[in-house]
Design a protein that fits this description.
Layout (H helix, E strand, L loop, with lengths): L36 H4 L2 H6 L5 H8 L5 H13 L8 H6 L9 H6 L29 E5 L2 E5 L33 H12 L6 E5 L8 H12 L6 E5 L2 H4 L2 H5 L1 H16 L3 E6 L9 H12 L3 E8 L7 H13 L2 E8 L13 H11 L10 E6 L4 E4 L5 E3 L4 E5 L8 E5 L7 H7 L2 H16 L1
Parallel strand pairs: 2-3, 3-4, 4-5, 5-6, 6-7, 7-8
Antiparallel strand pairs: 1-2, 8-9, 10-11, 11-12
Helix pairs in contact: 8-11, 13-14
Length: 448
């Protein structure tokens, strides 16, 4: 006798997170209608055909987007603090029947009409990574963990990038700090790590580890494995979400990653990948295949989402994303409340919104497959559980966190986006004296 199928309230019968787009979806773009699956599945073709300028954008989009949308995008390109780079894979996943509201478009292609005036507290290095940098391209904030910025390029550029101060080409809105890939610079990093016995954990980022050559994956991995006190390191890459075919077509890169992982395991150390899916639409049959290859090679994958307005700031989307990632063996790790980065006010949400969605997500699957919603405390306080504020005034939008194991005695302030506040409070934020008084009042309340 079979057991009855129990479906809890709110769970869809169709188990949608187990379904993956396996169509030739890119052929809906006139420019690529003759591109076969084998060609589209090659990372070199994806790289070569990525959209990196408005000229390239208009060539691809002119047949599928309204002139008003293209005009809006042109102004957005001019105002964006990040250079634009979008892979054909991502571009094809955008709903070109409604690109204005599409969650993938929002993350990578700026529209001037949607941009919001910056909150006065937004900066280009809100986390103060450079201030916590003992060696160029190395941030040492937590006692036993460092962030190694190995390079300054990515396979795509995200509008919401917290590292817009360094990543990608300069724009009319930004000048960049140079952290280009350099053996000489890397050697200073390795020397610092050898002389820092408290460090056990290294995040290799940038930029994006997908842009490291296969030989550089070996070089960096082997140097770190020689340092006995380093027990864990992870390669951070957006690449799995935006160009998963690299895993299946760049065999040298994938093999070298597997070689380093196996060497580490024999030393009883851990190597893994940290990646960055933000919306269920980003997960296709290409993703499923790439994650399967990595899983078979024994490479663990964790995910760090950014919580963004109009992208994933609702319970239904985050639940679907959580379960879809879990199904392909990607472990949800963090969901970041958007950093205080200039030029991204339209993508930011309130702390309260994050709390509400986290409450809905928690319990839909196992705890180890549920992301922790965090505020990465501005000015270098590190990642704080979203609920752990010392003070939160939803009227002024000010929340205050402490980080006793990172920077004891300090208080770190996060600010909800201006557009989420009452008009009278918005006016106060535009008055420097009134804004300073709101901050002083919040700090006073937190101390009480």
């Amino acid at each position: 006798m079979g057991y009855p199928l129990i479906i809890l309230e709110g769970y869809p019968m169709e188990f949608s997170w187990r379904k993956f787009n396996d169509s030739d979806f890119w052929q809906a773009i006139p420019e690529w209608k003759e591109v076969d699956r084998e060609t589209f599945s090659n990372h070199k073709w994806q790289d070569k055909n990525s959209i990196t300028s408005f000229k390239k954008f208009i060539k691809i989009a002119s047949d599928i987007a309204d002139p008003s949308f293209i005009e809006d995008a042109q102004k957005g390109f001019e105002l964006a603090p990040m250079a634009v780079r979008v892979s054909p894979y991502l571009f094809s996943l955008i709903d070109w029947n409604n690109p204005v509201e599409d969650p993938i478009r929002r993350q990578f292609l700026p529209l001037a009409s949607q941009l919001q005036p910056d909150h006065p507290m937004l900066t280009f290095d809100s986390l103060h990574e450079q201030e916590d940098s003992p060696v160029k391209g190395l941030t040492h904030r937590y006692e036993d963990k460092v962030l190694f910025l190995a390079l300054d390029t990515c396979p795509v550029y995200c509008r919401f990038c917290t590292r817009s101060y360094a990543v990608g080409a300069a724009t009319s809105q930004t000048e960049k700090v140079s952290i280009k890939a350099s053996k000489d610079r890397w050697q200073h990093v390795f020397n610092y790590l050898r002389e820092s016995p408290q460090v056990e954990d290294v995040v290799i980022s940038g930029g994006d580890a997908f842009r490291l050559k296969a030989s550089q994956i070996l070089e960096i991995g082997e140097e770190l494995l020689k340092i006995d006190h380093i027990r864990r390191f992870r390669f951070a890459t957006k690449g799995l979400a935006i160009m998963p075919m690299k895993i299946t077509s760049d065999l040298d890169w994938t093999n070298n990653l597997a070689i380093i992982t196996e060497k580490a395991r024999k030393q009883r150390k851990e190597v893994c990948i940290h990646t960055h899916f933000n919306h269920p639409k980003e997960i296709t049959s290409f993703s499923e295949e790439a994650m399967g290859v990595l899983f078979e090679r024994g490479i663990k994958i964790r995910n760090q989402s950014v919580f963004q307005r109009g992208v994933n700031d609702d319970a239904e989307t985050m639940i679907e994303l959580t379960k879809k990632m879990s199904y392909i063996n990607v472990q949800p790790y963090y969901a970041y409340i958007h950093d205080l980065v200039k030029g991204t006010e339209d993508l930011r949400t309130t702390v309260q919104k994050g709390i509400e969605v986290e409450k809905a997500v928690r319990g839909v699957t196992a705890g180890f497959n549920t992301a922790t919603f965090v505020v990465d405390a501005p000015e270098g306080g590190g990642k704080r559980d979203i609920h752990s504020f010392e003070h939160y005034d939803k009227e002024t939008g000010i929340s205050i966190y402490t980080a006793p194991s990172v920077k004891p005695g300090r208080r770190f302030l996060y600010y909800d986006p201006i557009h989420s506040l009452n008009p009278s409070i918005q006016r106060l934020w535009r008055n420097p004296r009134a804004a300073n008084q709101m901050i002083k009042d919040a700090l006073h309340s937190a101390r009480k």
